[in-house]
Amino acid sequence: MLALALGPRQGERLGLGWDMVDLQAEKISWSRSIYRRRWEHGCSSPQNCPAKNGKGHLCPQRTGGGLYFGTVKSSAGERVNAIPQQLQGPLEVLWQQHVDAGRPAYTDPAGVSVELVFQQPNGGPWQREQDQDRWHSFLAGAGVPPRRVHDQRHTTATVLLLMGVEPRTVMDLMGWSQLSMLTRYQHVLDEVRRDAGARVGDALWQAPASPQPPHQPTAQQPKEQQPAPVTSLDEWRARRAG
Questions:
Q1: Cα 84 vs. chain centroid, distance in angstroms?
Q2: Which regions of 83-228 does DSSP assign to beta strands (E)?
Q3: Please, where are the H alpha helices in 184-241?
Q4: Phi first, then psi: what are they for 5, rounded to 5°?
């Protein structure tokens, strides 16, 4: 819900902490992301290590890897989004669940601790692959073919532009630093406009519908409710005049 409504990047969403969510002011600040560092060999002789061919994550004394918190992609990525009313309630429920469960904060290998909004039962972050699997399950349940996780972000941007939101505002909401990002959506908007134009044309110039047969009263209708047949405008005027 949050990904489709606000369009954060996957790392921004998985690294979102409650310290960045202001439920009273109904806004979310984006200034943090979570990313994965590759594991490196920690043994003194990588040549003799069972983890060969650059597979440092298999080294028994591996070092330096794991999930780390960092800054967002660019300075433009530091932004604030208003929380839609439809998201406010679910976020408040989620916050209360975390409080009741007393889940711990996740501390990355560099010692940075964050109480994550979207967390596993042990307080740890979701892996990107796990997030992708849950996204695909959500799509399958809705009868939608598989799509990339990043397509959530494309959906948000497309909807904002189709609603006529000013391009500069869309850039601020999406955290884009370059105007060229808008041109990527131009072909999508043109296609939607062509479809809308075709629908208008069909509605205005479609062939007239075949005339419907006159209403025939059923036997169950009381006589006073059965419509009286009218054969001409003059006859209708005469009846109205009494």
A1: 12
A2: 106-107, 113-114
A3: 186-205, 233-241
A4: -80, -35
The closest of 108, 144, 121 to 35, measured between CA atoms, is 108
Dihedral sign, Cα of residue 78, residue 76, residue 26, residue 155: negative
Give the burial string for 33-69 (b: 16+ CB within 10 Å, else e): bbeeeebebbbeeeeebebeeeebeebeebeebebbb
Q: Specify the residue for token string 């296609």.
A: 191
Q: How many Å apart are CA 242 and CA 238, to the nearest integer?
A: 6
For residues 57 and 66, give the distance between their C-alpha atoms in angstroms, rounded to a whole number.
10
Integer Cα distance of 194 and 227 in angstroms: 46
Going by C-alpha positions, the residue among 115, 153, 138, 152 that lies closest to residue 21 is: 115
DSSP letter (8 states) at residue 64: S
This prediction's pTM:
0.72
Number of Cβ within a 10 Å radius of residue 136 = 16
- Phi, psi for residue 66 in degrees, rounded to 5: 120, -170
pLDDT tens digits along 176-226: 888 888 888 877 788 888 888 888 888 888 877 777 766 665 555 555 555
Handedness of CA 38, 42, 44, 47 (dihedral sign): negative
pLDDT tens-digit readout, 95-138: 999 999 888 899 999 999 999 999 998 889 999 999 999 999 99
Q: Hey, what amino acid is at 133?
A: D
